[in-house]
Amino acid sequence: MSDGTQTLPAKWRPVTEESRPVRIALIAAALAGLAVLVLAPLVVVFAEALARGAAEAVASLVQPDARAAVKLTLLVAAVAVPVNAVFGIAAAWTITKFDFRGKAFLITLIDLPFSISPVVAGLALVLLFGTNSLVGGWLVASGFPIIFALPGIVLATIFVTFPFVARELIPVMIEQGRAEEEAALTLGASGWRAFLTVTLPNIKWALLYGVLLCNARAMGEFGAVAVVSGKIRGQTATMPITIEMMYNEYLSVAAFSLAAVLALLGLLTLALKTVLEWRHADQLAASRRH
Amino acid sequence: MHIEIDEIAKSFGSTTALHPVSLAIPSGALVALLGPSGSGKTTLLRILGGLEFPTSGRVLFDGQDATGLTVQERRAGFVFQSYALFRHMTVFENIAYGLRARPRRTRPPQAEIERRVTKLLELIQLPQIAKRFPSQLSGGQRQRVALARALAIEPRMLLLDEPFGALDARVRKELRQGLREIHDTTGLTTVFVTHDQDEAMELADLVVVMSMGRIEQVGRPQDIRARPATPFVRAFIDA
Question: How far is B232 from chain A (nearest CA, A)?
């Protein structure tokens, strides 16, 4: 392509291609934006964490509050992500494979967590399950408190991360249509078998992206969790909340070390996605072509 | 298998796709449902295959009421318009799908599955493509694989939705002959949907002309050509 273009007059350039200076300027602008908005903050977090040496950073991470926060965050993600994966598949399946009244309403409902502030979501949970509510009072009395405890944190996280899996799956499943499932049924497969052998393999990449995004958000959620958790140090303080508390107490090495761990968890998620994509590149291409 | 359609009607909400239609398809016939889009021909085919259920009326297979049979119980070999091959499976696995989906009692052993798939690949004259994926096949090859996959379940009838719709003119002519041969070899009652009157007239023993959810005329191709029953049929076959 490149050797052919040189012999052609300039006006024969492909219609969607810009001239060289314009291309360079656009790429430079994109890279500059990326450096300022994404790369610089990330570098600063790690630099601050290591400002007084690696030993102090590690020491701040092994203290009980920090360890409890990491454990709690991983536990919450481990519960919220599978729950949302199952809900997301079910919702996407319902929306794309069936016609029914109120479908548009259901789609709006799935998007609700995107448009509502997480703080509002947290407050709603407090109103529903707090000690002063009917349900909450009874739950606290029977020794199963939701607010200021693990169940509340999990519920808030599930609410905030609800749309991720469904949002990834719906366009893919709409594009693929129902024909392959119908073919499986005419060949004698049960609905469940058709789902496992036809639908699931076809959506596995979208599902993976959805789960990874959902996981990243679940680990990083602050607003909703801050409201329902009560911020009890070492008990209900997740990583983002512990980071904020430490920062407010001028424990900057501790705060940034924990922030670096949180960022690393996010980067790990991203690396995992890239490795999977790279190892299954041929499959990915085959499923997208066709 | 003899198929009898008895006063079948279908509406989707307030739109009527099929007014009550009746039709008898003799055992072993090759039948074309011919009509423009929106004539109800695909709806009728999907009702036969159990993919849609009629609003009223009955379907009889060999005199037995089959209206309530599920899509799995119908055992209809269905070829979809864009073939709907399983894109993540090889051609072999696509064709073997229906055999592997059987309940354990009736599922053939692996060696038997391999034997049958090989035989079907020979029948469609593509013995070398077992290991390929659908994305690596031409349109004509995909259509024949879809046909082999439908035949693998030893169907009681063969139902094809616009089987030549996605192909270019030359391949289309070739595959018409292919379908005729497979029909003659297997002796299966075969119903295909088309909007192409040449295709219907050349291939089918019996042509059913449809329009606006009604059957306009049923007859042998030469009879329909010689004596169109309604102005619609005259206009449609002249086009």
Answer: 32
Domain borders along chain A are 18-49, 54-289
| Neighbouring-strand partners of residue B9 | B56
Q: Which of A101, A175, A187, A204 to mutate to test the interface with B (most CBs of B within 10 A)?
A: A187
Contacts of B102 in chain A (CB under 8 A): 188
DSSP string of A244-264, one letter each residue: HHHHHTT-HHHHHHHHHHHHH
A195 touches chain B (CB under 8 A): no
Over its length of 290 residues, how does chain A's per-residue pLDDT go in tens digits? 445 445 666 667 788 888 889 999 999 999 999 999 999 999 999 999 998 989 999 999 999 999 999 999 999 999 999 999 999 999 999 998 888 888 889 888 899 998 999 999 999 999 999 888 888 888 888 888 888 989 999 999 999 999 999 999 999 999 888 999 999 999 999 999 999 999 999 998 899 989 998 999 999 999 999 999 988 888 899 999 999 999 999 998 999 999 999 999 988 888 888 888 887 776 666 555 44
Distance in Å, alpha carbon of A92 to nearest chain B alpha carbon: 20
Tokens coding B51: 């993919």
For the domain B1-75+155-172+181-220, what is the CATH code?
A: 3.40.50.300
Size of interface A-B (CB pairs under 8 A): 73
Cα–Cα distance for residue pair A226/A245, rounded to 1 Å = 11
Q: Superfamily for A54-289?
A: MetI-like (1.10.3720.10)
Considering the entire predicted model, what is its pTM?
Answer: 0.82
> Closest Cα of chain A to B231: distance in Å?
36
Residue spans of the domains in chain B: they are: 1-75+155-172+181-220, 86-152
CB pair distance less than 8 Å for B150 and A186: yes
Look-up of token digits 């192909």: B167
Which tokens go with A136?
Answer: 């909450």
How many C-beta atoms surround the C-beta of residue A196 within 10 A?
13
Query: Predicted ipTM?
Result: 0.92
Q: Which of A180, A187, A289 sits opposite B98 (nearest CB)?
A: A187
Q: Of B178, B159, B145, which Cα lies nearest the Cα of B76?
A: B159
Answer whether B149 sits within 8 Å of A290, measured CB to CB: no
